[in-house]
Amino acid sequence: MSYSLQFGQVMGFLPYLIEGALVSFWVALLAFAGGVLIGLIGAFGRIFGNRLISGAISAYCIFFTNTPLLVQIFFIFYGLADFGLLLTPFQAVLIGIMLNSGAYLTEIQRAGFLSTRRSELEAAEVLGMSRLQTVRYVVVPHIARVLFPPLSNQYILVVMSTSMGAIFGLEELTGRAVNIDAQTFRSIEVFSITGVVYVIVTTLATALLAFAGRHLLRVRMRVF
After folding, report:
1. According to a count of CB atoms within 10 Å of the terminal CB, is the N or C end of the chain lower?
2. What is the rounded distance in angstroms from the CA atom of residue 133 to the CA atom of residue 140?
């Protein structure tokens, strides 16, 4: 049985898909911002906290980096409902991705903080810098340059992770593609176009991050 490609039936849904891509972008942005905050707190807790705090954060990181994101969202969406905590698909997916990325970002940011060389701190002390000046002019610029590339890569992963929302009824990019496929039964065309939209979105995001890194932090990143 031959299959005839008919992209014309699907192209009319392109604005609908683009709206879904914007939903994916906002979910990723909110989840990533929350993940960075969680990672920042976690990194400081691992470095400066006592044994109990450091152990609790370590256990959190081990759990969320060694279990699938999909399982985590299933637990948040369905498991918490058994305890009376009902969440919308948007809330469940957002919290799941935020907690998952927060675990990875804890380790990424902790490594960045620990990467400041002792010689740089000693040089700042010799120059007569105060502790605040040392943090502002030595520690923060160094950490920003070290952390920018892995944080940028993590954001792109978060954007693609939003596709998990389709399983829970969230109408992001993949969720809308599933809806279109149910109406048109043109799976190859629908998901081919959806894949192209993902490539465009992630490539633009990578290019913007590379531009920001080059001009703000003097960090060179490869787009391709």
Report:
1. N
2. 10
Instruction: Name the CA radius of gyration of the chain, rounded.
Output: 21
Q: What is the DSSP string of 52-76?
A: HHHHHHHHHHHHHHSS-HHHHHHII
137 in Cβ contact with 123 (< 8 Å): no
Query: pTM, whole model, 2 decimals?
Result: 0.87
- CA nearest to 104, candidates 53, 172, 31: 31
- Which of 179, 224, 189 is CA-nearest to residue 206? 224
Helix (H, G, I), strand (E, B) or coil at 127: coil
Cα–Cα distance list, 151 to 45, 172, 215 (Å): 19, 23, 17
30-88: per-residue pLDDT in tens? Answer: 999 999 999 989 988 998 889 999 999 999 999 999 999 999 999 999 999 998 899 99
Pairwise CA distance, residues 69 & 186, whole Å: 29
146 by Cβ neighbours in 10 Å (0-12 / 13-18 / 19+) ranks as buried
